[in-house]
């Protein structure tokens, strides 16, 4: 018989402090989700359906054509996606299908470990402050928890990664990070170049000085209509590279547009074998003075099969100053966002539960 998790403190102890995670709940044999995971009605995803707007989400961009006669068309597609949805998919990015499958296998390998083997990476006891195993996003701040476990690996140097990243996944995660950095460099050359700036090493390092690989695990959920895998949010960094598995469940908010009569809606980013998902983060929206859109997105749960995803986050270094490019602010008649040290922005981001794109309000300049 499954244990009872009606007591909120006992639940937090079991899931968060003892490191059992959501997977531990499912493995205990629960037949319905505990109350702490039930989202308020307006946050539930049972009414979300896949959009028919294929041009926004399901036509991948071929990065191999950046080096050929179709260069200008590829640049146009990348820029348009960054300016509208903030999400796009890429193929021929330099990572083989076999490698991407091995990366998903590595994620499953880690989360299949016994709880005590994963708990050694809990915050406060992990052998490295740059490796963290946890669950949900901000359990202490959330009214309703997210149905997700994760392991986060921040890159500092090769030696530290080899010594401290979990052995079940470190080789694949390390190779993924290295390949993603090269792809992000190419994409930022396009996106920053479109803003009238040549991407040199100093600008690149300020924009992606912090690099992180996460592995996310979304266990089977007995009541997916009541829960979310990840709540509404945008990413805080510059660009995110995401590997989905074939199960799907990633949804992006398409903003209302009065210019073309488009209504606000949530559309699914469908899994495409061999493709990677790219999304714009808050830092790039700030840098571009709002020209590029950090995408508000969320993840649904499923009762059919456990799901994994592997994001690589390219993030400004903590001491970097982030703010609109000066010439863009002049062209636009003023900056939309104030300049801030990224550490401040990051502290604010992690200090609150997911709530759409409200993290940007921290730096938004109020209109007089």
UniProtKB/TrEMBL annotation:
<comment type="pathway">
    <text>Phenylpropanoid metabolism.</text>
</comment>
<dbReference type="InterPro" id="IPR044861">
    <property type="entry name" value="IPNS-like_FE2OG_OXY"/>
</dbReference>
<dbReference type="Pfam" id="PF03171">
    <property type="entry name" value="2OG-FeII_Oxy"/>
</dbReference>
<comment type="similarity">
    <text>Belongs to the iron/ascorbate-dependent oxidoreductase family.</text>
</comment>
<dbReference type="InterPro" id="IPR005123">
    <property type="entry name" value="Oxoglu/Fe-dep_dioxygenase_dom"/>
</dbReference>
<protein>
    <recommendedName>
        <fullName>feruloyl-CoA 6-hydroxylase</fullName>
        <ecNumber>1.14.11.61</ecNumber>
    </recommendedName>
</protein>
<dbReference type="InterPro" id="IPR026992">
    <property type="entry name" value="DIOX_N"/>
</dbReference>
<keyword id="KW-0223">Dioxygenase</keyword>
<dbReference type="GO" id="GO:0002238">
    <property type="term" value="P:response to molecule of fungal origin"/>
</dbReference>
<dbReference type="GO" id="GO:0016706">
    <property type="term" value="F:2-oxoglutarate-dependent dioxygenase activity"/>
</dbReference>
<dbReference type="GO" id="GO:0009805">
    <property type="term" value="P:coumarin biosynthetic process"/>
</dbReference>
<keyword id="KW-0560">Oxidoreductase</keyword>
<dbReference type="InterPro" id="IPR027443">
    <property type="entry name" value="IPNS-like_sf"/>
</dbReference>
<keyword id="KW-0479">Metal-binding</keyword>
<dbReference type="GO" id="GO:0046872">
    <property type="term" value="F:metal ion binding"/>
</dbReference>
<feature type="domain" description="Fe2OG dioxygenase">
    <location>
        <begin position="206"/>
        <end position="316"/>
    </location>
</feature>
<keyword id="KW-0408">Iron</keyword>
<dbReference type="Pfam" id="PF14226">
    <property type="entry name" value="DIOX_N"/>
</dbReference>
């Amino acid at each position: 018989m499954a244990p009872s998790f009606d007591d909120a403190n006992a639940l937090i102890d079991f899931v968060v402090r003892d490191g059992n995670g959501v997977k531990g709940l499912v493995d205990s044999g629960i037949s319905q989700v505990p109350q702490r995971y039930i989202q308020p009605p307006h946050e539930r995803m049972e009414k979300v359906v896949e959009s028919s707007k294929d041009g926004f989400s399901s036509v991948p961009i071929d990065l191999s054509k950046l080096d050929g006669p179709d260069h200008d068309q590829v640049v146009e597609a990348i820029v348009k996606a960054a300016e509208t949805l903030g999400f796009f998919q890429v193929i021929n990015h330099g990572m083989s299908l076999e490698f991407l499958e091995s990366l998903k296998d590595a994620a499953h390998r880690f989360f299949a470990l016994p709880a005590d083997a994963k708990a050694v990476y809990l915050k406060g006891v992990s052998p490295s402050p740059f490796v963290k195993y946890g669950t949900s996003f901000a359990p202490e701040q959330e009214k309703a928890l997210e149905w997700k476990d994760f392991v986060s690996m921040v890159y500092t140097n090769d030696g530290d990664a080899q010594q401290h990243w979990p052995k079940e996944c470190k080789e694949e995660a390390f190779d993924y990070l290295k390949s993603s950095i090269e792809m992000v460099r190419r994409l930022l050359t396009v996106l920053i170049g479109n803003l009238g700036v040549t991407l040199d090493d100093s600008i690149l390092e300020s924009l992606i000085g912090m690099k992180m690989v996460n592995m996310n695990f979304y266990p089977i959920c007995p009541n997916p209509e009541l829960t979310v895998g990840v709540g509404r949010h945008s990413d805080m960094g510059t660009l995110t590279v995401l590997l989905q598995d074939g199960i799907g469940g990633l949804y992006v908010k398409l903003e209302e547009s009065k210019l073309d009569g488009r209504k606000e809606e949530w559309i699914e980013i469908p899994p495409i074998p061999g493709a990677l998902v790219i999304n714009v983060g808050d830092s790039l929206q700030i840098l571009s003075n709002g020209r590029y859109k950090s995408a508000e997105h969320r993840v649904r749960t499923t009762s059919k099969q456990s799901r994994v995803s592997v994001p690589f986050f390219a993030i400004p270094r903590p001491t970097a100053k982030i703010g609109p490019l000066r010439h863009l602010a002049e062209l636009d008649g003023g900056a939309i966002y104030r300049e801030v040290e990224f550490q401040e922005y990051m502290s604010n981001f992690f200090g609150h539960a997911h709530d759409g794109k409200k993290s940007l309000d921290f730096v938004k300049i109020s209109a007089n």
